TrEMBL record:
It comes from Robiginitalea myxolifaciens. The keyword Magnesium does not apply. This is Response regulator receiver domain-containing protein. PROSITE patterns: RESPONSE_REGULATORY. GO terms for cellular component: cytosol; protein-DNA complex. Keywords: DNA-binding, Phosphoprotein, Transcription, Transcription regulation, Two-component regulatory system. Residues 5-120 form the Response regulatory domain.
Length: 125
């Protein structure tokens, strides 16, 4: 099976490093984007198999990023949103714009791997 490529959009350096490590250990190739501009640049050059995106990021938020992927790129790329708990409005907005899943922070790396695999299987079907 070919290695799946994940674009991880997370501005928290420590969390990004932890998640990248755990996802690579699970067999994924991981590219990290630290803000919304880096996400857009990465999407121009290389389409990942899945986007894991923090809602609160500099330049373009996760909400704006979902909107960009769905409307401007016209792409059905699977998207998992990350956000601090209790930010229900943002989560609902993300789902309305086309996000596929949501995980509240603090993120369990094991849960993230399970959700990524589940989404990848669903999108292959």
């Amino acid at each position: 099976m070919d290695q799946k490529h994940i674009l991880l959009a997370e501005d928290d350096e420590m969390l990004a490093t932890l998640l990248k490590y755990r996802l690579e250990k699970a067999g994924f190739a991981v590219e990290v984007a630290r803000d919304g501009r880096e996400v857009r640049e990465a999407l121009k050059t290389n389409r990942p198999d899945i986007l894991v995106c923090d809602i609160m990021m500099p330049y373009y938020t996760g909400i704006e990023t979902v909107d960009y992927v769905r409307k401007e790129l016209q792409d059905n790329l699977p998207i998992i949103m990350l956000s601090t708990a209790g930010n229900e409005t943002n989560v609902l907005n993300a789902f309305e714009l086309g996000a596929d899943d949501f995980i509240a922070k603090p993120v369990s790396p094991s849960e993230l791997v399970v959700r990524i695999n589940r989404l990848l299987i669903k999108t292959r079907a």
